[in-house]
């Protein structure tokens, strides 16, 4: 007896349908799902965006208000702008990397490092002698007057 082929695709079949197949199955689905937010439920069930869901439900004979269509269009545009802004912000954060720090004290919630930069360390070494490395390995030259606090 031959081995059975293992299905490697984990995505549900209904989310892999093309428009023709979705419209065929949507008739049966729509009969079972009457009520509020039909377009939203359709988009989640078949894995399409709201514009596509509205278009396909209109092909099946459902009516939607023009104001609802405009609202959906604006929300999708706003989501796209927000996604682009988030991408730009992430690129800016990546430019501000660890290599410019002399000492990394920690990381923020967003993963941005903070600490002493090389410029701050050079300025601080002139102002605060405590920041200078010890002159010998065995002896630390620390005086209470050297502390800034």
SSE topology sketch:
Layout: H1 19-32, H2 38-46, H3 50-59, H4 66-95, E1 101-107, E2 113-117, H5 118-127
Antiparallel strand pairs: 1-2
Helix pairs in contact: 2-3
Structural classification: mainly alpha
Order of helices and strands: HHHHEEH
Helical stretch count? 5
The main pleated sheet reads as:
2 strands, antiparallel
Quaternary state reads single chain
Report the sheet-strand fraction: 5-15%
Low-confidence stretches: none
Instruction: Order the strands across the largest sheet as they lie in space.
Output: 1-2
Q: Give the domain tally.
A: 2
Mean pLDDT equals: 83
Instruction: Provide the helix percentage.
Output: 40-55%
Describe the global form.
Answer: elongated
Amino- and carboxy-terminal Cα gap: 82 Å
Cα Rg: 31 Å
Number of beta strands: 2
């Amino acid at each position: 007896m031959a081995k059975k082929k293992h299905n490697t695709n984990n995505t549900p079949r209904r989310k892999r349908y093309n428009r023709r197949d979705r419209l065929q199955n949507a008739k049966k689905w729509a009969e079972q799902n009457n009520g509020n937010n039909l377009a939203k439920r359709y988009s989640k069930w078949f894995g399409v965006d709201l514009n596509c869901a509205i278009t396909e439900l209109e092909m099946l004979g459902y009516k939607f208000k023009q104001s609802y269509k405009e609202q959906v269009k604006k929300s999708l545009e706003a989501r796209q702008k927000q996604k682009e802004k988030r991408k730009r912000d992430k690129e800016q954060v990546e430019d501000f990397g660890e290599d410019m720090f002399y000492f990394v004290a920690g990381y923020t919630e967003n993963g941005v490092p903070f600490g002493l930069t090389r410029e701050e360390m050079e300025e601080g070494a002139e102002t605060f002698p405590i920041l200078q490395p010890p002159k010998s390995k065995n002896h630390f030259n620390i005086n209470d007057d050297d502390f800034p606090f």
